[in-house]
Amino acid sequence: MTPQVVLVHGIRTSATMWRAQLAWLEEHGVPARAVDLPGHGSRMAEQFTLDGAFRTIDEAVRDAAERGPVLLVGHSMGGLLSLEYTGAEDPPPVAALIAASSTALPRGAALSTYRALAGAFDRLPGRGMWITERVLAATIPPETRGDFAAGGYALDAQSVVLRSLSTLDLTAAVHRIHVPLWFVNGQFDQLRSHERLFRRLAPHAEHIVVPRTSHLVTAMRPHVFNAVLRLALAVVRQGS
Fold first, then answer.
1. Which of 41, 44, 100, 187 could staple 75 via S-S, CB 3.0–4.6 A?
2. In this predicted structure, what is the pLDDT of residue 126?
3. So what's the pLDDT on residue 109?
């Protein structure tokens, strides 16, 4: 059966962040779907809830699983949600998982710092978007630079998302994941704070660090990330 790919975006952005990956997957004949979570992208007017987010992922995964083994791919918030979802006590039909920029527990000092920064940006003129645009212009190649903003920025959802993520039990979930698993981090990713813990919880997982990249690894080095997709798809095909 043909592998199917489901992609889950990070906080503030939307399904458009995966345009480079969707183009590569289409070029190679791999069916793929990138979802918009509640409060993001085409669903910006909705309220974000964990139940709604997990329902969105589950519906996409189960629909894809009717046609083939599912490779689930998540970035940042989407990676944390995908880890929690895949590591449920009653495992969903996920054949393999790539969790990018997701090896940090969303609580404690790391969460407090992120929330403080988000609040500080919100108080700036234009909610600090001019800084975001300058950072993207300086770090993201032209071909993927507009992907994160193309679906709009879910600035109003940030606070509730961060509160919601702090309730996840990722240590239990990651320990329960037994399907092929890849942790993919940028060399300078600020969310590598619990990388060693995640690797201990899932000793079978492969750990890939992409040089000269930060948190936005999928857009900064899209060809490298697509190579990880190629690897994961080969493993899924071999196991199906």
1. 100
2. 56
3. 59
